[in-house]
């Protein structure tokens, strides 16, 4: 058994002068304070990676910098799925008695720590170095390929994708930490500059600076812990060239593995935190996870179902698309927001009922999937 | 490793591999079959014919040297021998089009360029 007992999140966007370690430290300090714990209470540290500060031992670099001598520490790398994979591992470590309080932390000055060209170029390396990268693809191109096929098989349209971008922006407008604070319309998404068809600028998450952290504990001394009640993964491929058919991607299997421990029915989920690197990612994952019928994610969004007052509030902080994406910390912001919602601390974004939440992250090009269920105590 | 001379080494050809044990067909070259583990898969040269599985038109280049080429089309093609490959395509390509591979220089190397049959 484990509880998430504290969360910390910086604002995302331009954080001039902040290093990777600065952003990690800010988020970690907030999470500790939220959990009511001191540095000496932390006996495990998991951290992500930073593309602008690559290091073979980032967890101990951070531990020394922050002032912790943990019994257990290392970095984890699953691309965009890293945050949820760390949450799952922290849950396993705590449940098995290896550690009492695991600090999970990530941060990166991905926006101001390098040029935009460097960011685009380094991320494209997720593709195959011999059979893909020489063709000049980008991450949006990999997802553009998937999107073209998804539209072809399921009849969804670019407007359908645009609706999800608008939804995430609407949510970000309610969060002072979000990178974007100007409203957008479907027409503006449709008119935004093409990046890799069918994806346009506003279908794509931004590059951000930011940090996020949370603490997974054996005992809930914070009195606002939420319980981890299931987690599962699936890894079907690395490269989009070798991906299985759309119907055989990993979201469903990861969800099934997360559900089976407690026999959780998807219809009982009250809050959803779903990885949204691109609008296509969000549409596909919502449908693969059964949170919308096939081809109907946008119909549910149009119906208001995913809004703060809807039947299934989704990414109420604005998601990667509009809160921002600083690398590993990007998807951890989803978990931080989920925790705030489940503990009644989301302010004017507070939803009525977040008693059972489903979180899902993916890394690569829908390559690695992690699902997790959280329950109110 | 088997003879690997194809577009990835600058030759105008597209290779794939076939497992001698389980008959699995695959594209990304290695010294064993990723399905059954058997060694020494056979390297074969594809006919170059296939069908477009997915396509995207890249407007934002990943590196400055690629900017002069935008927009360029990247496609996934199911070649008739049974593997899926990533390649360039002519700008008019749509999913389901029957295509054949040609080759063109790109960023200092040679890349397959599929066009309609």
Q: Could you characterize what this model shows?
A:
- Chain A has 377 residues and is an alpha/beta fold.
- Chain A has a domain at 2-113 and 211-217: Peroxisomal Thiolase, Chain A, domain 1.
- Chain A is built from twelve helices and eleven strands.
- Chain B is mainly beta and 117 residues long.
- Chain B contains no helices and eight strands.
- In chain B, the strands form two sheets. A five-stranded mixed β-barrel of chain B has the order 4-5-6-8-7. In chain B, strands 2-1-3 form a three-stranded antiparallel β-sheet, with no helix packed on it.
- In chain B, strand 7 and strand 8 form a beta hairpin.
- Chain B is globular and about 45 Å long.
- The mean pLDDT of chain B is 95.
- Classes of the chains: A alpha/beta (377), B mainly beta (117).
- The A-B interface holds A 117, 120-121, 124, 128, 130-132, 134-138, 140-141, 144-149, 152, 193-199, 239-242 and B 8, 26-29, 53-64, 66, 69, 71-72, 74-76, 84-88, 95-96, 106-107, 109, 111.
């Amino acid at each position: 058994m484990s509880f998430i007992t504290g969360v910390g999140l910086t604002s995302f966007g331009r954080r001039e002068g902040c290093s990777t370690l600065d952003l990690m430290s800010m988020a970690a300090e907030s999470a500790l304070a939220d959990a009511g714990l001191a540095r000496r209470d932390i006996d495990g540290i998991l951290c992500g990676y930073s593309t602008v500060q690559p290091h073979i031992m980032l967890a101990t670099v951070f531990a020394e910098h922050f002032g912790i001598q943990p019994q257990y520490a290392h970095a984890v790398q699953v691309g965009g799925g890293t945050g949820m994979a760390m949450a799952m591992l922290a849950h396993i470590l705590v449940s098995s008695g290896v550690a009492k309080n695991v600090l999970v932390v990530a941060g990166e000055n991905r926006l101001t720590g390098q040029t935009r060209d460097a960011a685009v170029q380094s991320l494209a390396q997720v593709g195959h170095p011999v059979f893909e990268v020489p063709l000049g693809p980008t991450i949006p191109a990999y997802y553009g390929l998937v999107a073209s096929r998804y539209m072809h098989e399921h009849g969804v349209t670019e407007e359908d994708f645009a609706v999800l971008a608008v939804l995430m922006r609407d949510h970000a407008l309610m969060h002072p930490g979000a990178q974007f604070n100007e409203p957008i319309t479907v027409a503006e998404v449709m008119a935004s500059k093409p990046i890799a068809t069918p994806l346009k600028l506003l279908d794509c998450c931004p590059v951000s600076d930011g940090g996020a952290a949370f603490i997974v504990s054996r005992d809930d001394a914070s009195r606002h812990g939420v319980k981890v009640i299931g987690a599962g993964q699936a890894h079907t491929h690395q490269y989009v060239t070798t991906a299985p058919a759309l119907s055989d991607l990993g979201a469903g299997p990861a969800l099934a593995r997360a559900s089976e421990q407690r026999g959780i029915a998807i219809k009982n989920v009250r809050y959803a935190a779903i990885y949204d690197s691109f609008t296509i990612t969000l549409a596909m994952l919502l449908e693969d996870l059964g949170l919308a019928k096939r081809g109907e994610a946008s119909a549910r969004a149009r119906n208001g179902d995913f809004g703060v007052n809807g039947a299934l509030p989704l990414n109420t902080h604005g998601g990667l698309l509009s809160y921002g994406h600083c690398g590993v910390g990007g998807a951890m912001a989803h978990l931080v927001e989920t925790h705030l919602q489940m503990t009644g601390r989301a302010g004017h974004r507070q939803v009525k009922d977040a008693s059972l939440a489903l979180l899902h992250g993916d890394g690569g090009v829908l390559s690695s999937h992690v699902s997790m269920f959280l329950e109110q105590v | 490793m088997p003879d690997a001379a194809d577009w990835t080494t600058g030759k105008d050809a597209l290779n794939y591999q076939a497992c001698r044990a389980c008959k699995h067909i695959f594209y990304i070259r290695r010294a064993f079959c990723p399905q059954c583990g058997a060694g020494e898969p056979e390297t074969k040269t594809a006919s170059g014919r296939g069908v477009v599985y997915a396509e995207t038109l890249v407007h934002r280049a990943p590196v400055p040297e690629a900017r002069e080429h935008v927009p360029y089309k990247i496609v996934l093609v199911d070649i008739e021998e049974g593997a899926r490959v990533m390649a360039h395509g002519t700008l008019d390509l749509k999913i389901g089009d029957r295509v054949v591979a040609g080759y063109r220089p790109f960023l200092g190397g040679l890349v397959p360029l599929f066009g309609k049959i």
